[in-house]
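step=predict obj=Fumarate reductase succinate dehydrogenase flavoprotein domain protein n=770
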Amino acid sequence: MAPARMIETGSSLRREAAVPSRGFQENHMTADLCVCGGGLSGTIAAIAAARKGVSVILIQDRPVLGGNASSEVRLWILGATSHMFNNNRYAREGGLVDEILLENLYRNPEGNPLILDTVMLEKIREEPNIRLFLNTALIGCSKEGNRIDAVQAFNSQTSTMYHVKATQYIDCTGDGTLAFLAGAPFRVGAEQRDEFGEKFAPDSEYGHLLGHSIYFYSKDTGQPVKFVAPSYALKDVEKEIPRFKSFSTKEMGCNLWWIEHGGRMDTVHDTEEIKWELWRVVYGVWDYFKNSGQFPEAENLTLEWVGTIPGKRESRRFIGPTIMTQQDITEQRFHSDAVSHGGWSLDLHPADGVYSEIDGCTQWHAKGVYQIPFSTMVCAEIPNLMYGGRIISASHVAFASTRVMATSGSNANALGVAAALCKQQSVDPIQLLAKDNMQALQLDLMRFGQYLPGFKLRDPTDLVHKAKSIEGSSEFVLSNLPANGPPKVLVRSLAQMLPLEPGIVPTFAVTVLSAVPQTRLTVQLRGSQKAYNYTPEVILGEQKFDLVAGANRLAIEFNGNTTNPQTQYVFLCFLKNESVAIATTKTRVSALMTVEHECDQSPPPDVGVDSFERWTPVRRPMGHNLALTVSPPLAAWATANINNGVPRPTKRTNCWVPAAGSRKLLTLAWDAPVDISRIVVHFDTDYDHALESVLRGHPERAIPFCVKAWRVIDLSGADEEELFVENDNHHSRREAVLKEPVSTAKIGVEILELNRDRDFLGGIFEVRVY
């Protein structure tokens, strides 16, 4: 093919003579890292690497970033929190997943997917080390030996062919397009039960692939709207869709995730055919709403938006040194190379999707979060390739949990940081599996804000470890919470979670109201088998109270001899009694919450999943703590927590909370002056809150516990000297970078204001000084 030849140009005219053929304009580029795919995972991998000094080229085949989270598909970002419907307390992902979700909350509590687009585009545009190419599809790769040498991508909007040469590559394409072209090993479909001993492996009747979904939005116009269905719309919804009675005009968007199809097709190459079938279903359903006569409330509704591309769930899964299995999730197995965490359920869907007669999904939860190892994200055969997003090395059953976006984004955060470490040490990703390299990666990740269950940040460069003293102006102690909240009727069993150390259990006092002359209330103290879980399965003590009508003051002593065997959150449980209400408080404190017994998880006996009770929180503005007294007072919010290496509640609060009404100053002192240029502080943004990115709104723009205004001051002289101040924060992890290094023997980190001071006591999880 001959290159294009320009014959004549002028100020307003360009002429080219006829030639045998022409080629597209070509652009050759180089970078340290090429990230293919700009969904949530690709976006996060690119940002994480760029912030650590890696030059990145990000290739995205769509006009916006975000993939399934974008305005093109409009699925909410979720992961280990699982809508707060499981026992995974304080489980929201850290790092860049947290940063993006908190920024989206601040700008977009209503859940508008267009605003989320702008958040992610802005995050990329603000990174000078990233070159972004939208509408640019990966179409080929070339190799030198077993390494990827370059990739080719085409932008149909600019008619440009790009040739990108990088040292490392991350495949975040969803279907594993780069890994496929490069020849990496992969699997499609479900393993048999006996291959990995996975009892939840589906049979052929259920199906071995999850399909695609397309969502739609409706709008009330205030006047009647007529709808004429296209000819390809499904004609008989009641006959063709077994679950047609589940349709409601109040449901839209990802609440209709079960409008799913394609699980018995090739979910890569048949995507367009699957999309047409989903359009057929969506327009048929809307025709059913508008014209069946069964939905008079739909008269003024119009079909505002229908997705133009399907949201994919499953296609290829690529193979690494480790393949995650069901047991890694349900048994919460330890991995020495853990770089991320998950907590979504084992969420398999019937292959027949919307046309299936069985439930749209079967969700079985583990009792807590689980680790995800780096060895699922690297390719042994192609040393400069990493797997991002949902294509990591996992069995079909494990994939049912690891596939969701916030989990994939957390994995990608690890890959971006790994790329930076590879550049720094001149090694390939698979070499990071060596013990010393892995420990360096895990250290970098925790510095970055990534949460690694079971690991603590021990940073040898952090000057806080060398401080002679860490003192707070005050410390919150749980002794009494006033009864100024709404009474809570025990229509469900209710529990106050309390962080206790091993030993004798305090005594508690609460006020309950009985609506009948005589009834009995059972109170139990429960714990978890594993200290870092929040499944109240072990009864530590029980007391029964005979109540009279009206107010009853209960002293709960569990016979005075109940002991707590381990450091953990215990559950002070008030069992269901609809004749009884318990007094609550408006006071809310970091790392203190109540949960309700929502349901029991009762799987069949042969699927390898535990039966247990699910106790879940009620979202703000509801979900109050109990009005109670504790004796002796519970001192779990001490200053020393800011240096224990875990910046969120686990089996302890892990945070310092100052007492109400006092100056909120944390002081760090050294024996001799130290040079300080940067201070990292980790605030409380309620890691239990799911922060769904779209559709489901939130009651606040900033998490109320979170510190809004704070400052760093030099306390080494006679007068306080302000070194740094921030007045409008809504994020978890903040860095105070000083204009010039300061030599001092004493500094203070002061909380000036929370995002909601009234009734809220918020604190600090971590302070690091460099």
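step=describe
Confidence is low (pLDDT under 50) at residues 1-7.
step=end
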